[in-house]
Design goal:
14% helix, 18 strands, 280 residues, 3 helices, mainly beta
Length: 280
């Protein structure tokens, strides 16, 4: 059977003026696909085998190509948005006909020139399309272990679970809600630390350092915020978690720990509604 969206080794069952017809075998020649003449390698004849990719041309006819696509069925790849039309975005995937990313398969608004992480699927009209829902196609056999540093892209946010990450654009990872901070949204590239490798092979990640290292970073963040307010914050550590999150990207507990260290070091004083830098 000829499979749409996949690379296959097929046999030449017939030569014509405008190309060659390929099939799984001579016995299955009734199901065949055209490889245009300009892509037929020299000295190839009936009975020879060729590795080709199967997709649909501009007239929605199934066709073969010897060109290398940037994405095959079951894979995840980062593709560039060539243009945006009335049905969605069109992606450059290395073939003559751009790949459609329908609006309903997008995670956030995409624009021309963006690099988007996608997988392939076959729509109800039996056409190849792209989707930004890549979860099912991410692998769980990464070479990473606890405490390794990894790079990934956030492809989806969940109120229940946190941020789903494609590590190396290939492996399945998750930053849980308690490990999230800062301005994280779909499309954000992150540097993360592997907390653990789960039994199913998926990676639990953190974008925070270990506690003693993160404390130093949080203290510096509070000091920088004080500087931006000319030495006096218009709130203290009793303000709502939402205000702290908005102003610092930290949780309330993280903020209170950082403020506590600065207070112990004698660098700040906490007022009824303010925090003041004593060196200002």
């Amino acid at each position: 059977m000829i499979h749409l969206g996949e690379k296959q080794e097929l046999v030449i069952v017939k030569k014509v003026e405008f190309g060659v017809y390929l099939a799984v075998s001579f016995e299955d020649a009734a199901e065949h696909v055209l490889l245009p003449v300009k892509q037929v390698p020299d000295n190839k004849n009936v009975g020879d085998k060729l590795e080709v990719f199967i997709y649909r041309d501009s007239k929605d006819r199934m066709i073969a190509t010897t060109h290398e696509p940037k994405l095959c069925m079951g894979q995840v790849a980062e593709l560039k948005v060539a243009q945006v039309g009335k049905f969605g975005a069109f992606l450059d995937w290395g073939l003559e006909k751009d790949l459609l990313l329908p609006f309903k398969e997008q995670r956030g608004k995409v624009k021309q020139g963006d690099m988007v992480l996608v997988s392939l699927y076959i729509d109800k009209s039996n056409r190849l399309c792209a989707t930004m829902n890549v979860y099912e196609n991410l692998r769980t056999d990464s070479p990473y272990k606890a405490e390794d540093r990894v790079h990934g892209r956030v492809y989806e946010l969940s109120d229940n679970f946190g941020a789903f990450v494609a590590v190396d654009n290939r492996y399945s990872g998750l930053i849980s809600k308690k490990e999230l901070y800062g301005d994280i949204e779909p499309g954000t590239d992150v540097e993360a630390r592997v907390l653990r490798v789960r039994e199913d092979g998926k990676l639990d990640l953190s974008i925070r350092e270990k506690a003693y290292l993160q404390m130093d970073a949080d203290v510096e963040k509070v000091l920088a915020l004080l500087d931006s307010y000319e030495g006096a914050l218009p709130f203290n550590d009793k303000v709502s978690p939402e205000v702290i999150k908005h102003e610092t990207g930290m949780s309330k507990n993280e903020f209170k720990r950082a403020v506590g260290r600065l207070l112990k070091q004698g660098k700040i004083e906490i007022g009824e509604k303010t925090i003041r830098h004593l060196d200002y």
